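Make up an example, fold above all:
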Amino acid sequence: MSPLSGEIKTQVMDAERIRRSVTRIAHEIIERNKGVKDLVLIGIKTRGIPLAYRIAELIGSFEGEPPMVGELDITWYRDDLTTLSVQPVVTKPEFPFSIDGKKVVLVDDVIFTGRTTRAAMDALIDAGRPQLIQLAVLIDRGHRELPIRADYVGKNVPTSQQEIISVQLTEVDGVDQVLILEKE
């Protein structure tokens, strides 16, 4: 189960809707990037990682060759880390491939304030010099604090500040669904 808690308000996506959204995102990535040449997907920990692998598998089934997938933990790049530690230690992210000159698609489950995406871009730049960076998210819930937008969106879900989006994926939570929770 997702670590987020609150009373379930509504289910906005079930397994089939998630599958359709991920399939559409895969097609859009292929179309915008004119295939898979120099394309890599980087999943942001935690639920962005299984989404990146799902998208890569679909792209591979459409194009005959899947893009490479990397995993990114942005913990040490968060701008609120100093509230957790006085002197955070930033380590360079490593991928099993170079991102230099690549078309990188960051993959995450939800975009909210934009701060996670900013941290992920900082981490990518520390790892290399991609040709370009794009962003794919399953849910865009609004409330941006930074001028960041997703290039590929599964579903726009307008929310209030009192609501929580809980994305649950089989690989992590044992079920595929997206819920809106009311903060307790």
Summary: The mean pLDDT is 92.
